[in-house]
Design a protein that fits this description.
With 195 residues, this protein is an alpha+beta fold. The chain is built from 5 helices and 7 strands, in the order αααβαββββββα. The radius of gyration is 35 Å and the shape is elongated.
Length: 195
């Protein structure tokens, strides 16, 4: 078989004609025009014409009026109110570790000073000119929401916490609210086991 006959101009035009959609009328007008079909041919033009399918958005929730699922909404976004003009109070986050002499002197439990080995998060919030009865505090697994008549704080916590196991105390002399939250990590039972 001769290679010139395989790649001749007429054989390439015949191949392009086969690959193109055949029109209703078999019109051979384009055979007379010396044109290169490379510009018109794309990988998408090979094969039968694909019809565009429009898929309607499927609502997975039972309530058809909802815009998104609960899983799609980040935790704490329901508290985020950008139009609230209340001032954000000053706060300080520190981490607390429970250590004994075996940790300090001998390093037997494998704890180090990093936040990964801390058991508690302590948040100190300065609330000047605020009474204890004016404070509203809501704690979820990853969010702390504090509201007073003059101040508002929405704080996304660095670690998930156990929202049921926490303490808060208001130091009225210093006008500071001190919130202590237990960090909740998946493998704490392995990392901090007593054995």
């Amino acid at each position: 078989m001769d290679m010139d006959s395989v790649f001749s101009g007429s054989s390439l035009q015949s191949l392009a004609k086969l690959l193109r959609d055949a029109p209703e009328e078999d019109d051979d007008d384009y055979d007379d025009v010396p044109s290169c079909s490379v510009g018109a041919m794309t990988p998408g033009s090979v094969g039968p014409v694909k019809k565009e399918t429009t898929s309607a958005f499927q609502v997975k929730s039972e309530n058809k009026k909802t815009i998104w699922n609960i899983e799609e909404v980040p935790e704490g976004s329901e508290f985020d109110d950008t139009w609230d003009a209340r001032e954000k109070p000053e706060y300080e986050i520190s981490f607390k570790q429970h250590v004994g002499t075996e940790d300090v002197f001998f390093g037997m439990t494998g704890k180090d000073p990093s936040t990964a080995c801390c058991e508690d998060i302590v948040i100190k919030i300065k609330l000047p000119e605020t009474k204890y009865s004016d404070i509203t505090l809501d704690i979820q697994d990853k969010v702390l929401d504090l509201r007073t008549p003059k101040k508002k704080l929405l704080l996304h916590l660095p670690y998930p916490v156990n929202s049921k196991e926490g303490r808060a105390r208001f130091l009225s002399e210093e006008e500071i609210l001190e919130v202590t939250l237990r960090v909740s990590r998946k493998f704490d039972f392995i990392n901090f086991s007593d054995g």
